[in-house]
Specification:
alpha+beta, OB fold (Dihydrolipoamide Acetyltransferase, E2P), Helix Hairpins, D-amino Acid Aminotransferase, Chain A, domain 1, 22% strand, 651 residues, 5 domains, seven-stranded antiparallel beta sheet
């Protein structure tokens, strides 16, 4: 018994760690297949011992949602679904009951609420009990109706997804390979939870309804199918489904199994839901699963092959990624011969060695992964030097994950990748400098730091003699450089390639510090981490960058060639130089983040605490004795209701 309990404790810790990484941090520390295997092992041990330990993922629903968006409790808890990979187990569940069999979409579950025919609220699943309010973002999903014919109160659930074609389009537009998204689900998760819904709108997020929770006063004829069709009549796209019983299950499943090969949307299985609402509801639920529905996950097509090489691929951050090269095999209709191993921790866990017999599969039928190493020789040496520069490579542990890094700050791989990011569209937007061209310029010693790019005229005579680079190409490059000289501080910060700082984060940081570079350089970690949406990891990376004297020297060299302009704000900047604090609930805006974005669009700044620099406190309860109201009165700062604030805007 003690051995079983110890194993259960280890499994719970490992599974919860993987779930936290996947759902809250958008990173993977194990494959889906491995997670399912460990989960099934834990559930079997719990049944064997009759013991369920605290924190077990078999009874807990999820993890706390992030704090970057307002949180709100769901009216009814959202449970996970019990699942199987065995068709006969699913057939047993269906039995003689009319059942809706539909896609199990791989995105982010969203709860929508409509009042008087208009979208009133959108909340993510979160931990199943409390989710994040993303109403402002849902309004720009490509297929969500903002108004519907039904005038009562409607609550429904669905899945937000991004199609494979949009995923590929967005990734192709990101010139920095290291910054590209791993899969459509990660991209969708980040898109749905943006603080700026302009970014969400560009991502083509789609919503497919899969459950009607409530619709006051509508007779649904005790039928889930009727609910689906009623939702369709209101303008919603509903998840594709087939009506089945045990006798007709095979035909429907064969259809879905064929369609998943060519679908443009991500799906990791099917969902079976009893059509009879009253019967399904009467079954109740376990601590974790409702009894009226069941999930079927595709049995992964697994092939055996032989590992022939481990390729180590450096990135601009110094991270050296292991990529397994194996004898080609056919998987899900295509030939594959390589798969990312992600990091050293996974490589060690698999005990990989050259010549090992491995099993490979495609996660969600798309991304090649190693499922298991059957021979586990463990003879694969981890490089001690970078494969590009030949200098020291060292294993570093971050967030309990081991990864290999090149320690040479002047590594050519880092340089080329960094310069590629620097000239990319979202950074300095310099045409005429492809990665191949940059590689040639760096090799010839023309470029050592970013500022050197703007001094390329020094090497004109040599460049115009280079193969494929004549007078016309050089003149075009000069025009592009001249155009790039005028830019914003946010684009400069992003272009520096500081780990975890994308363009959106750079804009948030620059806005907080009023586009004052010296304030950013001297800011402490805590001050940066307190900026909404930034946090300690990004704060540490930014502070570390500016703590380095050489980094500051190179940045000053770059800035000597640039003219910085302030970020253009939408609308007249009537609140320029003014500071606001928002507290309590809001009525005219979807949430406080929406109110904050509105103020910032008019040039104002929103802070979290009332100080002598605060211009106005916005609180609908203007007479309350809250700490913020008391502080505002002490300092003589006006307290405005939303109505009064909007009058101020329109005055």
């Amino acid at each position: 018994m003690d051995t079983s309990i110890d194993r259960m404790k280890a499994l719970i810790e490992r599974l919860n760690q993987a779930a936290r990484a996947y759902y809250q941090e958008d990173r993977e520390i194990m494959s889906n297949l491995e997670y399912d295997q460990l989960y099934d092992e834990l559930r079997a041990l719990e049944e064997e011992t009759g013991t369920v330990l605290a924190g077990s993922p078999t009874v807990s629903v999820g993890y706390e949602s992030l704090d970057s968006l307002p949180r709100e409790a769901h009216e009814s808890p959202m449970l996970s679904l019990d699942k199987t990979k065995d068709r006969e187990t699913l057939r047993e569940f269906v039995g003689n009951h009319e059942t809706l069999l539909s896609w199990k979409l791989d995105g982010l579950t969203i709860v929508l609420t409509y009042e008087k025919g208009e979208l009133a609220k959108a909340v993510t699943r979160g931990n199943g009990t409390v989710g994040e309010v993303i109403t402002n973002n849902a309004r720009v999903f490509v297929n969500i109706p903002l108004k519907i014919p039904y005038q009562g109160r409607l609550v429904l659930r669905g899945e937000a997804i991004i199609t494979y074609s949009d995923f590929e389009r967005i990734n192709e537009s990101i010139e920095d390979v290291d910054a590209r998204y791993k899969n459509p689900r990660n991209l969708c998760s980040g898109s749905v939870r943006q603080l700026n819904n302009e970014i969400t709108a560009r991502r083509n997020v789609r919503f497919y309804a899969f459950m009607l929770v409530s619709a006051e006063g509508v007779d649904m004829h005790n039928s889930r199918k009727y609910q689906f069709e009623w939702l369709r009549s209101q303008g919603f796209q509903v998840v594709e489904y087939r009506m089945v019983t045990a006798d007709t299950l095979d035909e429907a499943m064969d259809y879905f199994a064929g369609a998943v090969q060519t679908n443009d949307f991500p799906s990791d299985g099917l969902v079976a839901l009893y059509d009879d609402i009253a019967y399904g509801d009467s079954l109740g639920s376990t601590a974790k699963f409702p009894r009226n529905s069941f999930a079927f996950k595709w049995a992964d097509e697994i092939r055996e092959t032989r590992l022939v090489e481990m390729e180590w691929s450096p990135s601009r951050t110094g991270l050296i990624n292991p990529v397994a090269i194996f004898e080609p095999v056919e998987l899900e209709g295509t030939t594959v011969s390589r798969a990312s191993v992600h990091n050293v921790s996974i490589l060690k866990e698999l005990q990989l060695g050259i010549g090992d017999t491995i099993q490979v599969y495609k996660a969600n039928m798309i991304i090649p992964q190693i499922a298991e190493n059957l021979t586990r020789s463990g003879n694969l040496p981890i490089p001690e030097v970078c494969p590009v520069c030949g200098r020291e490579a060292r294993i570093r542990r971050e967030n309990d994950v081991e990864a290999l890094y090149c320690m040479n700050p002047d590594c050519e791989a880092k340089k080329i990748k960094s310069f590629t990011l620097f000239v990319s569209r979202d950074a300095m937007n310099i045409d005429g400098l492809s990665e191949a061209t940059l590689e040639k310029f760096i090799a010839r010693g023309f470029i050592h730091d970013f500022g050197d790019i703007f001094e390329i005229e020094k090497h004109r005579d040599e460049i115009v003699q280079m193969e494929g680079f004549g007078e016309k190409s050089f003149e075009n490059l000069k025009k592009s450089l001249e155009k790039a000289r005028e830019t914003t501080l946010a684009k400069v910060i992003y272009s520096l390639g500081i780990p975890n700082i994308g363009l959106a984060n750079a804009k948030v940081i620059c806005r907080h510090f009023d586009d004052d570079l010296e304030k950013i350089r001297s800011a402490g970690r805590e001050e940066i981490a307190d900026i909404e949406g930034i946090g300690p990891v990004i704060a540490g990376n930014l502070a570390d960058y500016f703590d380095n004297e050489e980094n500051n020297r190179k940045l000053d060299h770059l800035l000597s060639h640039l003219v910085l302009k302030r970020e253009v704000q939408s609308g007249e900047q009537i609140f320029a130089g003014m500071n606001f604090v928002i507290t309590g609930s809001v009525e005219h805006f979807a949430n406080r983040n929406e109110a904050k974005a509105f103020i910032e669009s008019l040039g104002g700044k929103v802070t979290g605490s009332v100080t002598g620099r605060t211009s106005y406190l916005i609180n609908n309860d203007v007479t309350s004795n809250s700490s913020k109201n008391k502080k505002a009165r002490e300092l003589g700062i006006p307290i405005l209701s939303e109505e009064e604030f909007l009058k101020l805007v329109n005055s």
